Amino acid sequence: MTLYTLKSPSRFQDLPGDPGRRFIEEFFTHGKKEILEHIASAIRRFPCTLIDTDKISIGKRNVVFFLRFDDGVEWAARLRNPFKQANPAHDKETSQRLETLSIESEIATIACIRERTTIPVPEILGHDCTFENDLGCPYMLMNRIKGWPIPDVVQLAGGITEAQILKIHAQMAAVTWQLALKCTFPVIGQLQARKSEGGSFPLDQIIDRHARQVGPFHSSTDYYATRSEMIYLEAKRKDLDQTSLESAQLHIRASPLTFDQTVDKGPFPLQHPDLHRQNVLIDRDWNIVAIIDWSWCSTVPWQSFQPFPFNLAAYIEPPQQKLSQIHERLFWEIFTSLDSDREYDGLHDSHSSEAVLCLLRMSKSRAGRIAKLMNQYAYPIPRSKDAIQLKQILDQRC
């Protein structure tokens, strides 16, 4: 039984100039610790104390603290870091308004996931999405998950076997299968809070991680055309170098090539936009116990949906391309087999079968490959490696 070592992800708090450490310092020096404890205690009506201060989790936008109540119950408190601004071009009022809307959408998304699927997600026990509370930032209070990011468990175990990789991939297939089949909506947009108990989740504009606003859209065609124009105009406005501008132009050229009449008008699946191995918590038996960080979630065209968000075998060091390809093939075998799994009998109909076959087709089609590269719109400018790959595909004859 071979134990494989995986490439370690970079730690956000180790990046130069990361504002997370500044936030933590001011949290303790400005009495925010006591304020957080008071808020949590008031919600549960039980005294609590901040614990594990050596395990505070610093992410790109959030900082997570842990609380323990006197009866042993533990919560996680996720606070938005006000020192990290999504879009420096926005004034403070605009920035905070968009952050609030984004967090409200995340809460609605988690509610939808809990209601429609068996995907394990944290339970939100209290929240304030504004910057006008005693903490001075939006926060969510959730049950503490007894699990760790995949890379942490791999490190604790001294490596990972092929069987363990396959076990995680099989569970991820069940996660993305449910997102694609149980969480579809008539438009492309972000979920909003329900207007009534038991009502449907309305969708509105997409606010991405750089606080750019687009949509909502009623077709994939409009989605890709609008986003490609947005990235190009942004590159021109920022007066980027010629290489970056040419990269942005590639997206204008690529947009019409994503068209697929069979799925252009939806319904559209919900996608976790940051579903990497750090956001998948597992226990020591390699069971997924939570999918976290549903920020900036939205419905997307089928061309952009990612059933296989990461391949653990692709992170093996030294790289083993053949092994990575084997696990990709095995993933798709598992994913397509879920359509007849008894656990999901309620969805075993022609629609689910067509959707699964559609995703399999998209994974191999030219339109699907182009769309996947265009997903890099989440970044300020198209990344050079993606631009090179996109150009190669566009220059190929159909």
TrEMBL record:
Short name of any one Pfam family annotated for the protein: APH
SUPFAM superfamilies membership: Protein kinase-like (PK-like)
Taxonomy, superkingdom: Eukaryota
Residues covered by the Aminoglycoside phosphotransferase domain: 58-295
PANTHER family according to UniProt: AMINOGLYCOSIDE PHOSPHOTRANSFERASE DOMAIN-CONTAINING PROTEIN, AMINOGLYCOSIDE PHOSPHOTRANSFERASE-RELATED-RELATED
Protein's recorded name: Aminoglycoside phosphotransferase domain-containing protein
Native source species: Lentinula raphanica
